[in-house]
Automatic annotation (TrEMBL):
Keywords: Cytoplasm, Decarboxylase, Lyase, Porphyrin biosynthesis
Task of the protein: Catalyzes the decarboxylation of four acetate groups of uroporphyrinogen-III to yield coproporphyrinogen-III.
Main localization of the protein described in the UniProt heading: cytoplasm
GO terms under cellular component: cytosol
InterPro entries for the chain: UROD/MetE-like_sf, Uroporphyrinogen_deCO2ase_HemE, Uroporphyrinogen_deCOase
PANTHER family: METHYLTETRAHYDROFOLATE:HOMOCYSTEINE METHYLTRANSFERASE RELATED, UROPORPHYRINOGEN DECARBOXYLASE
Species of the source: Hymenobacter roseosalivarius DSM 11622
Originating gene: hemE
Subunit structure: Homodimer.
Top-tier EC class: lyase
GO molecular function, one term: uroporphyrinogen decarboxylase activity
Domain Uroporphyrinogen decarboxylase (URO-D): 20-29, 140-156
This protein's name: Uroporphyrinogen decarboxylase
Single GO biological process annotation from the record: protoporphyrinogen IX biosynthetic process
Residues where substrate binds: 25-29, 75, 152, 207, 318
Amino acid sequence: MIKNDLLLRAARGEQTERTPVWLMRQAGRILPEYRALRARLSGFKELVETPELAAEVTIQPVDALDVDAAIIFSDILVVPDAMGLTYEMVEARGPLFPETIRSAADVRKLRVTDPEEGLGYVLEAIRVTKRALNGRVPLIGFAGAPWTILAYMVEGHGSKTFSKARRMLYAEPALAHQLLEKITATTIAYLQAQVQAGANLIQVFDSWAGILPPNHYREFSTRYIAQICAALPNVPVTVFAKGAFFALEDFAQLDCQTIGLDWNQDPRTARTIIGDNHTLQGNLDPCALYGSPEQVQAATIEMLRHFGPQRHIANLGHGVYPDTDPASVRVFIDTVKEFSALAREGQI
């Protein structure tokens, strides 16, 4: 039994006594205890691949920030790594793939890995975390959407345009689909294993959704996200596709429970398009947390008013930035809890 199940009830569309709240990238980055642990290690991958340490970092924001959910400390790029395309995490630069996907032969070499073999360290981190949480809050598992994973596997690193990856969609669409099918099969098996290990909710991150035109997004992303959602019937699923304002009508047809919004999307417009059968998540601008406590509080209240009192999970519109003051994050969290509870009671 989970003592604080607000997140799960909100995702399912049930009544809640207040709005649940958590933050993308809450595990790490802003917390001094995370930075102290990280400084003792050889690098990011050591932390991700050591279950006990990943579990410790996962739980830190539950203790320090009193959020309503934990999200397992990992990375979306563990999937291509397990498929045979290894990556490095370069300090101050981000991910780098020494080898990239260029041909059908490269795609054939990739494996659809058994999750316990290729990603067992993440699954063990989930099991360790679940034991340590002891039912305090739900645990969120996650993976990257297939298009976003393809973008890194073809481009080889982060990019403003991902022109190499996008070129494949135009020049070699059949090859792109072959790669996406392998990524999707691996991702489905991985997320199903996360649920078996104890994840209570799954989030699919499509970080580079917004760089595709709508017709390409429908063909090369939404169809594969739909397959993932349909393969996870036993837990709530959240789809967060940054920049994909044009895809809301399609998202309304997905077999998922929650749609995440970035900070450029208007919750009222999104609700009109999506309807009442999905919960919305988001969407405070992460930069709003650079303001004074009074400004953070005001921005949070405005956000809550726009979403309304039900079927909302409060979050930022993207991950929390690493130089954000944890005190400002606490103002955000406390304001969500206090204002939404009063609104439920009709006191404001």
